[in-house]
Amino acid sequence: MSSNPGAAGSAAELNLDAYWMPFTGNRAFKKSPRMIDRAEGMYFYTPDGRKVLDAIAGLWCVNAGHCHPAIVAAIQQQAATLDYATAFQIGHPKVFELAERVVGMAPEGVDHAFFVNSGSEAVDTALKMALAYQRLKGEGARTRLIGRERGYHGVGFGGISVGGIVANRKMFGAMLAGVDHLPHTHDLAHNAFSRGLPDWGAHLADELERLVTLHDASTIAAVIVEPIAGSTGVLMPPQGYLQRLREICDKHGIVLIFDEVITGFGRTGEPFAAQSFGVTPDLITCAKGLTSGAIPMGGVLATKEIYDTFMTGPENMIEFFHGYTYSGHPMAVAAGLAALDVYAAEGLFQRVTELAPVWEDAIHSLKGLPHVIDLRNYGLVGAVELEPVPGAPMKRAMDVFAGCWEEGVLIRTTGDNIALSPPFVIDESQIAQIVDTIGRVLKKTA
Ligand SMILES: Cc1ncc(COP(=O)(O)O)c(C=O)c1O
Q1: Among 110, 228, 299, 433, whose CB has the most other CB atoms within 10 angstroms?
Q2: Which CATH number fits domain 72-345: 3.90.1720.10, 3.40.50.880, 3.40.640.10, 1.10.580.10?
Q3: pTM of the model
């Protein structure tokens, strides 16, 4: 029996005990569960029939809206045609087609796609690619990886090592050796309430020069950053910051990795944030929007230079000893191809660009409301930073999350930030509903 019968509508008879939920306060959830059992377009539906506006595209992934008929049909057809294809030494045509389509959308020079099943796998794959690339070039001493404070790169050991969220790191031992971190770029004193990219902070990229001086370039393989850092509260790159990182990496032979797991596939109005910000990295990690969240899939996109460096030695040999049973899974590939078709047919990336000014005004209309200490936006990304309750970090944001859920809007919180990233099919009245609801709940929880 449920630990809280009746709380979840038709789920009341469920036993909630066995499932250990990820990134969730299990005991609190099981006392007071929030369930969804259906979705369509911009909405989730609860088992008791409530309609909840999805202000976060599931988890930054359902860019085309929920249960898009074209994506559903493609998955159904694929399931009945080729359910699984061995991934090693055997191919199926659609995976080659998807790779070509994806690199066709990527910045010029990024020409190859390696498929995985999640953002975390994409990150660990990219880190391994960077290390192996340096070694193949005869630079085997370059084993150091540089991440950034407040970065999130998934939950694999590589990802948490270069990541910069203390709660995700502190329980898990020493992690990868030889990792260092750049400082994060978030600074309320200089940049609070900036619209789009903040003016102040490009010089923070010069900290990479300091790390080069400390460790020597000959020991550094790669730098990994999110162009927009999502999981610690949606932090925009200061103007010129990513360009500066690129220059320093070029100067010292360091591979630059952009983790575009949340920004890839249109979130900033271009296929990748690399294009929005005019900076081309050597490797791009992606996932989420690749299939519009319908089937798990991720990828690492690599420059020709990196790919070609691997393509040496005897031709019968495996060039990169890495891959997953489900790499390029036919169902994920079908969902990916259908998602890319939908993005193109419905002009959804263009729609992000068109809605961005409306979104920006809506987000910044929350200025002056109780406890709001910063508002941030870019493309269809938004953040509301709240002053923490003294001695109770995260409480204020969690109260707002619970209040919005009650009022029929799903938001996401990270620390005392509200992070917003709706599906691209959102309309102006739904944007208004999101900010009106947050505003109302903020006043109630004041
Ligand atoms: C920037 C970034 N990298 C990696 C990941 C990990 O992706 P996944 O949860 O699919 O492993 C995430 C997830 O939100 C992310 O935001």
Answers
A1: 299
A2: 3.40.640.10
A3: 0.96
